[in-house]
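User: Predict the structure for this protein chain, please.
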Amino acid sequence: MLELFLVVQRGFFSLEALIWVIGIGLLLGFVMLFFYQRKVGKGLEQELAQLGKVRKHNVEYELVLKAMKLCTWHIDAVERTITYDNDFRERQDCFVPTPGGPIDQVADAMVDADRQHIRQALDEFCDGLKEEYHEISRVRIPHTKNFYWTESYATIASRNPDGTPKFIVGTSMRIDERKSMENALIAARNKAEESDRLKSAFIANMSHEIRTPLNAIIGFTSVLPDIKEESERRDLINLIQENNQKLLRIIDDVMNISKIESGKEQLVMSSFDLNEVLISVVDTFMPKAQPGVVISTAFDRDSQNVTTDLNRLMEILNHLLLNATKFTAHGNIILGYDLVENNRIHIWVKDTGMGIAPENLERIFERFYKVDEYVPGAGLGLSICRTMANSMGGDIGVKSTLGKGSKFWLDIPI
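Assistant: Here is the predicted structure, written as structure tokens:
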């Protein structure tokens, strides 16, 4: 019995020890599992935080692309293919190449003047001859004759073992508004330069044109008291009066331009018979025509009522007939009109004078421009005519053949 008791007691202690061992092992396992899970949890937290940063970075990246209205693309420099990844350009008519297509399609989309340059720039960049890519070019809008401006940047993302580019990333954006602003600034600069040029021309021309009749007036006036012969005195007085009229005409021309452009002189509308006005103008200029030149009128109706600014119309007609008498040495000068559509009338002055070269047909309406520098005048008359015609809601122009004559026309509403 004692032996049996000892065996049972020994077995009980062995079982208790086994339980203790198992318990301690489980406890250690739980402790290790706890620390492992804690470690894994921290790792997951870090990964989630990193993922959050990536997502945030992608959102910020996308926001920048949207705000800048950019498109991003990449080029396989080995295969010479291009793919657009993101496109946040607002316009729907922007060029988008076929994904994975050859880069030549980019150059093919350019206008003729830019195509060869863009093709060469892309080839040099893919060959590693350039470290950065920055080009401004014009892209044709499909199925139209229009184009838009684009600016592109690119850089090398990875290289082959030999150092040549392997993967290229780039971005493009439309810059139509910027180009419009640049063109506006260039136009403003050119206008300022032209204004400065005109100011210099104005001073030079006015100095010459005013001094010429003024010298004649002073010179003839100074010798007039010494002239006793009545016929000579009369001739000198006529010359003085003629130069007085020239001087007055120059001053009037400058004042007319100043008043019209400043807006201080408004249209004064009145109704009148155009036939009577044209006949009176012709009567005024008949004595001023060169010997052998006939000035006449040509109407296809007995009367024509017109409502416009009579003073400005008379001023334009006077300038046109004055020019015709200056440059017509033989033949005739005819003043007439034709009715045109949309309630407008077409008044014209036709002469058989020296005519105007094709390259000067538009320039003669510029201020101070003179076809013949030896003919008296400041070169303001036709410029004034165009300004006045535009203020009346009309237009003015000329058709001419060098050596055969000219036809100046005025188109105004009636």
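Helices lie at 2-68, 104-108, 112-126, 176-223, 230-262, 274-285, 310-327, 381-391.
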